[in-house]
């Protein structure tokens, strides 16, 4: 019997796109992503995703990223309040 990871790898080896093959994995599986945005888009992202209306888990991730950006480029991000 294949593990879920083996089944996922087998699907991708057969040509399935990773986002398609993920459908067999549990929703709570740890995922690593790479995001590329310009500074304007980062500001927009932080305003949306640190809001009290944002999903709590997304808010947690966005708050960590915002703190990092405020540390690295304060002149661009210090005016954004972590809601």
Low-confidence stretches: none
- Helical content, roughly? 55-70%
Proportion in β-strands: under 5%
Overall morphology: elongated
Instruction: Tell me, rounded to a whole number, the average pLDDT.
Output: 91
Number of helices: 5
CA gyration radius, whole angstroms: 17 Å
Element order: H for helix, E for strand: HHHHH
For the largest beta-sheet, the strand count, sense and barrel status come to:
none
* Structural class by helix and strand composition: mainly alpha
DSSP strand count? 0
User: In angstroms, what separates the terminal alpha carbons?
Assistant: 47 Å
Summarize it.
By secondary structure, the protein is mainly α. The chain has helices at residues 4-13, 18-21, 39-49, 56-72, 74-77.
Please characterize this protein's 3D structure.
The protein has 83 residues and is mainly alpha-helical. The protein has helices at 4-13, 18-21, 39-49, 56-72, 74-77. It is built from five helices and no strands.
Draw up the topology in text.
Elements: H1 4-13, H2 18-21, H3 39-49, H4 56-72, H5 74-77
Features:
83 residues, mainly alpha, elongated
